[in-house]
From TrEMBL:
It comes from the Bacteria. It comes from Palleronia sediminis. It is found in: Cytoplasm. The gene is purS. Part of the FGAM synthase complex composed of 1 PurL, 1 PurQ and 2 PurS subunits. Part of the phosphoribosylformylglycinamidine synthase complex involved in the purines biosynthetic pathway. Catalyzes the ATP-dependent conversion of formylglycinamide ribonucleotide (FGAR) and glutamine to yield formylglycinamidine ribonucleotide (FGAM) and glutamate. The FGAM synthase complex is composed of three subunits. PurQ produces an ammonia molecule by converting glutamine to glutamate. PurL transfers the ammonia molecule to FGAR to form FGAM in an ATP-dependent manner. This is Phosphoribosylformylglycinamidine synthase subunit PurS. InterPro entries: PurS, PurS-like_sf.
Length: 76
């Protein structure tokens, strides 16, 4: 079983990497991009029976800085 954890900065938190991407896209001629939020995806190979609650514990303790980041768990 696999889980994907999508981690993004919370709304209102400055995203300098996203801003650098937005600026670079504009410099390359890609107009109309008004904002970019950059995040990360973590893919976990899990033992059968691992619960969403357990993956949530992993996120809370290590995978996401919940002060400034939010996360979403997807089982694939």
């Amino acid at each position: 079983m696999k889980a994907r954890v999508h981690v993004m900065l919370k709304e209102g938190v400055l995203d300098p990497q996203g801003e650098a991407i937005r600026h670079a896209l504009g410099a390359m001629g890609f107009e109309g991009v008004e904002g970019v939020r950059q995040g990360k995806v973590i893919e976990l190979d899990l033992a059968p029976g691992t619960t969403a609650a357990r993956v949530g514990e992993m996120c809370e303790m290590l995978l996401a800085n919940t002060v400034i980041e939010s996360y979403r768990i997807e089982f694939v």
